Amino acid sequence: MREKETTLYLGPQHPGITGNMMVKLKVTGDTIIKAETHVGYLHRAFEKLMEARNWMQCFPIVCRICVPEPDPNEENLARIIEELEGREVPERAKYIRVMVLELARLGTYLLWMGGQSGSMGLYTMPQWTIGDRDYILDLFEALTGGRVYHMYIWPGGVRRDLPEGFKDKVLKTMDYLEGRLKDYDDLLFDNALFYKRAKGIGVIDKSKAMEWGVVGAPLRGCGIKHDVRIDEPYEVYDKLKFVVPTAEGGDVWARALVRRQEFEQSISIIRQVMEQMPSGEFYNKVPNPLNWKVPAGDAYVKTESARGEFGYYGVSDGGLKPRRMHVRGPAYVHGVSLLERILVGANIADVSFIMNSLGTCPPEIER
Amino acid sequence: MEITYDKNAQEILSTIKSFARKSSLWVIAYGTGCGAIEIPPTMTSRYDAERFGIRGSATPRQADVLLITGYLAVKTLKRVIRTYEQMQDPKYVIAFGSCTINGGMYWDSYNTIKLLDKYIPVDVYINGCMPRPEAVIQGFIKLQELIMNKKAEGAAKYKENLEWYRENQRKIIHNWRMPEYNW
Amino acid sequence: MQNNLELENKIAEKIKIAFQTAEVQVQRKQRIKVNLNEDLVHPFLTFAKNTLSYKHLSHISCVDWIEDNQFELVYILLSYDSLVQIIAKTRINREKAEFPTARNYWPQVETYEREIHELYGINFVGNDHLVDFVLEDWEDLPPMRRDFDTVKYSQEHFFNRPGREDAQDVRKTVTKHSGEELPDLAKIYSVRN
């Protein structure tokens, strides 16, 4: 007997959806036979607004493109301007930027751990990790004044120097987070429930992963060692020692293992940065922001965010405002064409589980 | 058999009702905008909003509070209206962030609405971009005060002025394919 | 780090031999820019994917050059072997905005082209899935075109809160109320002062 096909709308109002988006599913029984992503619920026309703002006015805009991790956006925009102008960045500012980016990465991983375990009904984990993430947000608050949006990295350096005693605070937080890892292992990563639930779910085909445009942890979860920090070292990543972890299988479990190991790497990077950070200037003087003309040209820059390669394509026509700024977030592919493919054959209960493991973040799909 | 109360008893009864309502505010899990990122910290161990009887709810039919967490794209507005109309009385709306108040930094965007209270009634605004968890909790406490003083009458206002709200809503939602709920 | 451009020059040389009309320029380390004629884009994409092992298409972008009456399509490719990124650009007519789809080379192109179709109104011939992406029931000009005025549209369609009439300087008001001295940031950061 042929089972009846049903259309199921998952979202936009659904507790399991990561953000404000919708997945339209065609199911027979509990099995998905076709998935279709609908986005646009968060479209704010950032790219259009940036064409109407000065270069410096774009910084408050770009950090709102990715809410859990705004810093790669600022970094990208700052690097576009620096590349077009040939502006130098002081050594100390580079180290501070790396520190900010890695702190943001840790925060995103903590949020991801909460989301991943929350989507399988393990509600203790979000209580722990999101509570611990607040220690990182406190560091950001001390450094930049903002918990979520920082507007801290700007062309030619960073906005403020480290406050007094900040280094100790960072190291203390790192010690604390490292100590917590054992608890996370006990509850999530060594948990047979999680292993059984995650193994073999949401598999990305290794041979297709590159062609499909997969980046970040999902790509490394297929066993392909690719990380922007190694491939195209920006700031001071070429002076730091870290490994890029990979895992085999391409499923949710492999992606979880990759992120778990990267968590340790990020802690070690931050420790190295705090140790090696030179003293000196933290910014180079910049022109008057209201009359800042960036030379004509175009540039593509990319940063490794917690979810993968974050690319910006910027065009300047030599004027006060950007001619075009195009954002290529990692979720652009992960959330639409990849998700539609790997959801086929999965169960309905796996949808939010897979979405979380891909790190689907709708604001960067539609901007 | 119908029980009739005198005026005094009615007042006491409604105070008890208000107390019960304010002490268990169920918030619908709908992250409409970027402010949704501050909801997990508010709900989890550090700020622990459950101290105040605030907790999440999965469907609109069980929820009391609709949080509009930031700007609303036109596409989302349609879904928000539908969600709001599906919610059972008593229901309240808390609007979050500067973009619901006056458009905020999206004042010139072609896809976000600027004044939320022209489309759905708002009981409490929390300002900031984005509001901190403390501010969110403060907003909820303000809402509880309003409920206790019987001033959180957004839903009643909506029922009364439904025509006016509908006119505003239909002005920007061109293709109105939504069921009309009984009011 | 900047000086060693051997690999980039080698790849650029290969492109120059295969496509003699193309303008090839090594922008910096790991970046090559290629300007192509409209009809050479597809042969170039095939060549890059099959011969130069450019397996990963990062992005397709579009720039509106309204003063030249042209759209510029930008294909950003990455090879995981050489790690050199190619930025291939072409210009098409703005009036009759049509371009053959690249969906057959990379499946995710479908999404990229859907977005460009919606925001710029470029028709990608051969892509049959150019349905609504982020907008819903949009009736105006494609919004990312330069001649679409977003301020005017938003004032016409949405309610606006009137601004404050006294229009105070925020910094002065804060100083008056708190009594503290705020640092003159312009003096600290700007070269001009």
Q: Based on DSSP secondary structure assignment, what is the total number of beta strands of chain C?
A: 7
Which stretches of chain C of 5+ consecutive residues score pLDDT under 50? none
Provide the CATH top-level class of chain C.
Answer: Alpha Beta
Give a count of the beta strands of chain A, DSSP E runs of length 2 or more: 8
CATH superfamily of chain C: NADH:ubiquinone oxidoreductase Nqo5 subunit
What share of the residues of chain A does DSSP label as strand, in percent?
5-15%
| Proportion of beta-strand residues of chain C | 15-25%
Count of spatially separate domains of chain C: 1
Topology-level CATH name of chain C: Beta Polymerase, domain 2
Largest sheet of chain C: 5 strands, mixed
Q: Which regions of chain A contain 5 or more consecutive residues with pLDDT less than 50? A: none
CATH class category of chain A: Mainly Alpha
Description:
The complex is a heterotrimer of chains A (about 375), B (about 180) and C (about 190). By secondary structure, chain A is α+β, with helices and mostly antiparallel strands. Chain A is built from 14 helices and eight strands. Chain A has helices spanning about 45-50, 60, 70-85, 90-120, 125-145, 165-190, 190-200, 205-210, 215-220, 230, 250-275, 330-340, 350-360, 360-365; strands at about 5-10, 20-30, 30-40, 155, 155-160, 295-305, 310-315, 320-330. In chain A, helix 4 (about 90-120) runs antiparallel to helix 5 and helix 4 (about 90-120) packs antiparallel against helix 13 (about 350-360). The longest helix of chain A has 28 residues, at about 90-120. Chain A is globular. In chain A, about 60% of the residues are buried. The model of chain A has no long low-confidence stretch (mean pLDDT about 85). Chain B is α/β, with parallel strands linked by helices and about 180 residues long. Chain B has one domain: Rossmann fold. Chain B is built from seven helices and five strands. In chain B, strand 1 (about 25-30), helix 2 and strand 2 (about 55) form a beta-alpha-beta unit. The longest helix of chain B has 17 residues, at about 5-25. The radius of gyration of chain B is 17 Å and the shape is globular. With about 190 residues, chain C is α/β, with parallel strands linked by helices. Chain C has a single domain, classed as Beta Polymerase, domain 2 (2-Layer Sandwich). Chain C is built from six helices and seven strands; from the N terminus they run H-E-E-H-E-E-E-E-H-E-H-H-H. In chain C, the strands form two sheets. A five-stranded mixed β-sheet of chain C has the order 1-2-5-4-3, with helices on one face. In chain C, strands 6-7 form a two-stranded parallel sheet. Chain C starts with 5 loop residues before the first helix and ends with a helix.
